[in-house]
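Throughout our pipeline, every protein is held as a single compact record rather than as scattered files. Such a record has a labelled line for the sequence and another for the backbone structure tokens. The remainder of this section carries one protein's record, kept here as part of the documentation:
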Amino acid sequence: MEDNQKAPAPGRCRPTWMITKPRVTLEEAQRALDGLPGGHGLNIAYEAVDRLINPQAVDHLLALAIAGAAGFIGNELAALVRLRAGRRLGSPALVADGYHARTDGLVSLAVVASAFAVWIGLDAADPLIGLVISLVILRITWQSWLTVRADPAT
């Protein structure tokens, strides 16, 4: 700037760049958060608290229970195969994947429990079970982080 020019008043400057995309929506932020370790657990916790504050009716309880039961059976079968193969092959990664499948199966059982609880009239049970699931996911994420940090190979 030359000596004879004054600096522009604050707020009067013309921007040299522009934001070409609108602000991020909550759904976009949640999708991005899902990709982070523990992010899915945080999203579930957010939705559970939101449903406690703003209750919503849960529809199609029979379909929900059937899907939860099918998820449990499928995940438990996958867990059995992976755990057996992982132990036979001496593969910690395959054993860990088996435990992951077993945990997913337990979450599916929680979905069945939630459908049943809502069916008998305990509407608040759905978001409360969602909150418990989110805490389980966050605990597993934390334990995994501690395991990875403690591994001298990393």
